[in-house]
Amino acid sequence: PISHCQPGLTPIQLDHRRPAQPCLYTGGLSARQLGDLDDLANSMVVDAYLDIDSHKMSDRFRSSRHLRRYWRKVIERFCCDTDYDAAYHSLVFGDPISGQKCCLDEAAQRDPNLRLHLFRYLHLFDPRSGVQIQRCDRYRHEQGMGARIVSTRDWQAGESVSMLIGCAAELTPDEELHYLRPGVNDFSVIYSSRRQRSQLWLGPAAYINHDCEPNVELALQPATGSGAALHFYRTIRPIKRGQEVLLYYGPDFFGPGNCQCECETCELRGSGAFARTAAAASKPAPPSASPPLAPTCSPAAVLPVPPASLPQSAAPVASHQQCLNGSATTAAEAPRRRPSYSLRDTAV
């Protein structure tokens, strides 16, 4: 577990300073509002703590790099005392003792949605969550600037990872055409077959990476009474402490047959993006022969029927513009700032 306690400071249990329950997202924000909210909260917590520049929904968003060191110290202290209220006030309002001021405007400082969204990101550093976020350097296109979700305890199959939260906001047809920009900010879209509409999927849970042998699935808790339906992650096999939390995106998500997939399972099998390496090692080409070609992914491929590991309410689909163009080339094929093969990298 993360530990950055200063000398003489030990982790404490103060339930009155913690939310009684995970800060689940129950809706109420438009896709644009959720995008702006996530850009800010993600920058203040994940970017600051890992010192990365994650992908953002708004191309006009600029992270306050001069505040990163201060925000990181706030997160490190939170790892020791898990005081949500103190961390929130320090992140948003600054520290009057040291004279550190934050650059947020008054509207952001008073926004209750920002408070809750920051709490969702702080869950990643709460020992009760059973997970934490770490840097990831597995994927070549990320150039050592990726991230992954790692377990901090042993999980049994069938458990709900309740403090790893994603937030969905429905996209209007106009937002699909004008707010989403292919290859720029269409990195986290799911399709709800239940509501017959695309949804923006953001929050800390969007950092879960893909693997062809996953250990969690995205499930749906149906709405009850006046409450909203909630998405959550459920373990489908045991996860040991220190192992990465992994989700299956679909059989053709990274090209036909996942021919461009760089997950660990594909590396072990010699499949996906590693198929050429495996073939070359098992059967050396004659001196006069041309080197073996990499698997070809058709540019006209579109994403198929959702896999069994995802509920109908969260089926992987190509972005709207990709469907119009007849292309489902994923954003993971090009260098992106959003970490790893996660829901933040590719349209899902």
From TrEMBL:
Q: Which residues form the SET domain?
A: 129-250
* PANTHER family, per the entry: HISTONE-LYSINE N-METHYLTRANSFERASE KMT5B (PTHR12977:SF4), SUPPRESSOR OF VARIEGATION 4-20-RELATED (PTHR12977)
Top-level division of the source organism's lineage: Eukaryota
Q: Which SUPFAM superfamilies match?
A: SET domain (SSF82199)
Q: Spell out the residue ranges making up region: Disordered.
A: 309-348
Q: What's a GO biological-process term for it?
A: methylation
CDD domains, per database record: SET_Suv4-20-like
Q: GO molecular function: any one?
A: histone H4K20 methyltransferase activity
Example of a GO cellular component annotation carried by this entry: chromosome
What Pfam families does its record include? SET
Q: State where the protein is found.
A: Chromosome; Nucleus
What name does the UniProt record give this protein? SET domain-containing protein
Low complexity: compositionally biased ranges: 310-319
